[in-house]
Specification:
Elements lengths: L1 H27 L12 E3 L5 E3 L8 E6 L5 H12 L1 H6 L2 E7 L3 H11 L5 E3 L4 H6 L23 E5 L5 E6 L8 H13 L2
Parallel strand pairs: 3-4, 4-5
Antiparallel strand pairs: 1-2, 3-6, 6-7
């Protein structure tokens, strides 16, 4: 009887672990280059909701997922702020997305003097669709307590037709260079 319980427990554990792995793989590969970007509507630091669809036909959109008000996240947001004019020259709208509430994001945006909005994805629904949940991207996990609780560092470049044309997930650099993002955007902008 005891052996049967142990066998059942082991099978149950293997089943649960397999389900976690399969869900993680599904989340991590949820959105690929060449696919239509999933639309979203989220509260923003502008005091109003922002939707991806509102930029369709007008702008390229760079979606930057970040964990929150952590030093490395602040440094990455600041890097986009420093190079913002170059992004504007390519007609790129930057949208930063994290799990922070809009009030906390407004404080962060103001302290960094960000010229672009931050959007609040408090339930991680957008991050899940884009495959950008921390711990599911295949990147090194430095903060185990944050796995599944915040967005991981990820960037998506969406063209005017709403198609994902660039994707950078799980980069290990402390600050992800705007130069790489701008090069990708220049290639997309050059296409009719």
């Amino acid at each position: 009887m005891e052996r049967r319980r142990q066998s059942t427990s082991k099978l149950l554990l293997v089943g649960v672990l397999l389900a976690i792995v399969l869900v993680g793989v599904r989340v991590a590969t949820a959105l690929e280059i060449g696919e239509e970007a999933s639309d979203f509507t989220l509260p923003s630091t502008l005091g109003e909701e922002v939707s991806l669809r509102q930029f369709r036909g007008k702008h390229l959109v760079l979606i930057e997922f970040f964990g929150g008000d952590f030093p490395v996240c602040r440094a990455n947001l600041s890097a986009r702020q420093v190079d913002y004019r170059q992004f504007q020259a390519l007609n790129i709208q930057i949208l930063g997305i994290s799990v922070q509430n809009p009030f906390a994001q407004k404080l962060q945006a103001n302290s960094l003097q960000l010229p672009y909005p931050l959007l609040s994805d408090m339930d991680l629904q957008v991050a899940k669709v884009y495959g950008a949940v921390y711990g599911s991207t295949g990147a090194k996990v430095d903060f185990p307590n944050s796995v599944g609780q915040v967005a991981g560092r990820a960037f998506f470049l969406v063209d005017k037709q709403g198609i994902v044309r660039g994707k950078w997930i799980g980069e290990q650099l402390a600050v992800f260079s705007s130069e790489v993002l701008l090069q990708g955007a220049q290639q997309v902008a050059a296409k009719p």
